# Entry
Amino acid sequence: MSTSADALDGRDLIRAYLPRTLVARWSAHPDDTPVWHETLTGSLMHCDMSGFTAMSERLAGRGKEGAELMAGVLNGFFDRMLRIADGWGGVQMKFGGDAMLLYFGGDEHAARAAACGLEMQRAMPEFHRVEVAGETYGFLMRAGIHSGAFFSASAGDPSGVLHYLLMGRDVSRSAATEAEAQPGQVAASEPSASLLRGRARLVQQGHVWQVRSVDVPERPRPSE
# Structure
């Protein structure tokens, strides 16, 4: 027999796997239609781990065992990086293989994204030499930050499956910014760089700016 406490625990469990932006929308508009859209303003950081493809190709021949080994490496990487992101108010919006998309809203969103990216890069030596199935693999990370307006939507069948989507030109630009970063770097688009000037050390690199350092902004409270 289920109780109200059981239902509450179930909702809390589900929330742990959903972006906070989606949970916040539900809380602010509990009676809204299941299909909706809104615009999020802030900064997106696209992060990609290099070196994973070589490992996955090597382990592919091991079948289920190889898949479990790859999942273990990815889970360790994402767990470490998401704990850092959570401390800077970053919201995990999407996973894609060995890549992730983080959203930073509110005050000083660009500075918090930059501080998060730099802290994540400082943690990457933990993954420079990873032993898997008797072989050593090395991983690096690239990160790109773009600030703008991002179209978000709950789309699908109201009586069936719904998808939470983040899309638009500014979303694509965050991925393009990451693509111009070198492994080990945090790159910023011009809109993000304009918000960081005066408080960050920036070096122009093609169409983007490499973030070398940033005056550490105030961390958000856990409830924000």
